[in-house]
Amino acid sequence: MDKLALIEREISKEKGELTFFGLLKQWSPTESWNLVVSSSWSDRDGHPDAINYIVDKYYAVCDDSERVLIASVVIVDTDDDDLEDLLDAYDVEHGMLKTRKKRYFDEEFERGYIFTCKLRPAAKQPISCQNAADQLG
């Protein structure tokens, strides 16, 4: 897990803030995991480019035995409604939280590790009374 924490920090520094970066294991008999990533730069970058970038980072620090553990890299758009459940449930940046037996993105996950999960800056800021009054009329 230390290598993924290192990768998460490096990606965040090079490409920009991450909304979500986590490793989730689906219910299955195999020990394969999904690396799930969400960020504004991956929204703009296009999913294939973002996936290639993340895989290259992963391969640069992991050996062959570690490489086979991740079944897929999944890019989730920052405006995905299902992402909101995770953002409401967890608040961490450059850390590591464990999660167990949850349902996200219409999938059942046995367990997971969340390295970054934080609300987007616009979602964090409360609407001021003056701005609300201006919008009403």
Q: Oligomer, anyone?
A: single chain
Integer-rounded radius of gyration = 16 Å
How many β-strands, per DSSP? 5
What's the order of the H and E elements? HEEHHHEHEEHH
Derived structural class: alpha+beta
Explain this structure.
The chain is of the alpha+beta class and 137 residues long. The chain contains seven helices and five strands. It has helices at residues 2-15, 40-45, 47-61, 64-67, 83-89, 121-124, 129-136, and strands at 20-26, 33-38, 70-75, 97-104, 107-117. It is globular. The termini are far apart.
Task: List descriptors.
137 residues, alpha+beta, 5-stranded mixed sheet, 7 helices, 28% strand, disordered C terminus
Please render the helix and strand layout as text:
Elements: H1 2-15, E1 20-26, E2 33-38, H2 40-45, H3 47-61, H4 64-67, E3 70-75, H5 83-89, E4 97-104, E5 107-117, H6 121-124, H7 129-136
Parallel strand pairs: 2-3
Antiparallel strand pairs: 1-2, 1-5, 4-5
Helix pairs in contact: 1-3
At a glance:
By secondary structure, the chain is α+β, with helices and mostly antiparallel strands. It is 42% helix and 28% strand.
